């Protein structure tokens, strides 16, 4: 019997395996690459990116893991608040003045200011709720965040808005993968804190691309990591877990003392048997939205306006945000600017629903048309492009999600849950829950060995 089996090779699974690497473990990944929804590929000094890309800074779990594994990440120098809307691009200065710099009617500006003041007040309150309190358990903080404005949607909170006023709020909120009509008011407000205050959350890029971190761990796991191993069933018994997977067309079953399930909640719900029924039920209540994204490599020469910008918000387009993934490379250049850049655009929620069933070529055609309008001449500098579609893009926080959390936080028996859907901080939650599951199992394995009749042989 193995000490533990880790299911899933994303950024929750790899930290769990990293913590348990000195024990008798295997990590099973269904796909042919490590990283899950962290998906990046190097291209010379740049990297193309299709999935998660910004990480927690100093003192975060991401920071701790990066340092342990020996992978570099740096704070992003560029602006997060550029806006391309109504034929104009704004970058810098007070974002509250943006509505007055765009060709909008006074009625629309008044709507934006009124709703904006409401959101600003709520962001201040969210900031207080979000702040860690001395000595408190992380689960208490997480529950407080989920409880914040949890009984209505963001759209109900702002009230009805005209399309141009709505455009100031929708792209930011729907980055959650849910539309303002779907996500809780508190979660929507939380997104504005992320955008308005870089220091409040995720603002770092991994040098070489996001997937560098899980891949580095995967490399160190050696033959403890099994690729192309799709887990079909995980059964929890009193004193062990039984895991069945398919690899190269063959089915395998192994027993382990513990298992860490790091697959999205939908998959964990489908494959696990024998979980506490309350936890099992809670897994079934997690809601995901789609994401469609595309990466572009370009070959322009000389400085460009986007060099100092990381994120452009692009309302009323097929994607709602465009990222300059070469922003970090620019800041690391000592002398001359190298030719080229790397861009990512993404479409969550309804935008993704409109694209996810179209052929990739059609999605690229739609994206290229919009990119040409945002960055005139873009069409002439693209040298590589490709699309990714994520059906379970991200779990979004819906009204009532707070009531599901205590069920998910029940003490585990033999099956541990880890993954981004367990909290509010995406990669940070994934890494945290993976590391903590690994640490807890390590200490259980240690105490198990001290007990008589434990089945361990020395
Ligand atoms: C376009 C996009 C942009 C994003 N931007 C950011 C960002 O900037 N910052 C941020 O913090 N987060 C961001 N996120 C979210 C972030 O990517 C996720 O929160 C994080 O990667 C989730 O990691 P995970 O390990 O929990 O899940 P996953 O990455 O989904 O990992 C689960 C793994 O399990 C594997 N698996 C599935 N089924 C099985 C099975 N049956 N057997 C074995 N293995 C299986 C999958 O192949 C996958 O590798 C973004 C996501 C997307 C899609």
From TrEMBL:
Transmembrane segments: none
Keyword field contains Glycoprotein: no
Residues where substrate binds: 346
Gene Ontology terms, MF aspect: oxidoreductase activity
InterPro entries given in the database record: Amino_oxidase, FAD/NAD-bd_sf, Flavin_amine_oxidase, Zeta_carotene_desat/Oxidored
SUPFAM superfamilies: FAD/NAD(P)-binding domain
Amine oxidase domain location: 11-441
Binding of FAD, residues: 29-30, 231
Top-rank lineage group of the source organism: Bacteria
Cofactor: FAD
Pfam families: Amino_oxidase
Gene3D superfamilies on file: 3.90.660.10, FAD/NAD(P)-binding domain, Protoporphyrinogen oxidase, mitochondrial, domain 2
Organism name: Desulfovibrio fairfieldensis
Keyword line: Oxidoreductase
Protein name per UniProt: Amine oxidase
